[in-house]
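Anyone else keep sequences and structure tokens together like this?

Example one:
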Amino acid sequence: MISQEAYLKWKSERARRKLTPGERFGRAKFIFAWIFALAVFVVCMLVLMVYAMTFGEKKTQSFLLSIALALFTSFVIIEPIEILLLVSLPFLLDNGWTAQLRSRAKDLGLI
């Protein structure tokens, strides 16, 4: 375990030194990735708003409810069950066939 004094010393030394070109490039990629992800999110929200205006209020509410239900089902029910099975029964699921099947199912959007 590192002491707090050692950590603070390391942090102050790191803050004073200049970044190498590789570190600057890495940070630039990180920032660009977040900007790109946020831009995609904003565009998707704008497209959703345009489609919502064309569908009408009732269909839009049904559409948003179905998306919310699908997300809830995926994150609250399916993912925890999958994790519990993978953690509790690794000997059943630790083979090439299962790995290929899970990869194919994820490609198809089933899990």
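And example two:
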Amino acid sequence: VLFTTLTMPITNFRARMSLQQTFRLADAYQAYSPTVMRDIVGGVARTRLTSFGIHALGWAPQTPKLMFCVCLLACFISAPFNELRGYLLQEGTERKSFREFFQPMNCIRSTVVGAFNFGLALGAGYWIAPSVRCLVQLLLANPPWASLLNAS
């Protein structure tokens, strides 16, 4: 809840700018409730799905496979709150009714694309992080600039 509360003005500003809409101070916390619910539901889903993957499926914790699946499924679970958020962020004159706004195929498409993007990014991060950690440790232990400092 704290993260959402602190970052909501920035998120709403970016959303308005991407839609080429004006941003007013009153827009800073627009659609706050569905956004908080989305984040809470997503967090609970990630926790429970991670536990399920580790205990029921026997997957190792903090692996790319687990992170990808958990993020993918958590995005699907929290998607209805994201749709509600989008509906509430509409501008007044361009506002559609809920029936006009909510198009199941558009919702499914955006959820699948967003979920795969998030899942792949996190899975790739978990896959590449050990190699990057080793590289950073190697560079810190043997800095390439050390020979330049010792030469003078």
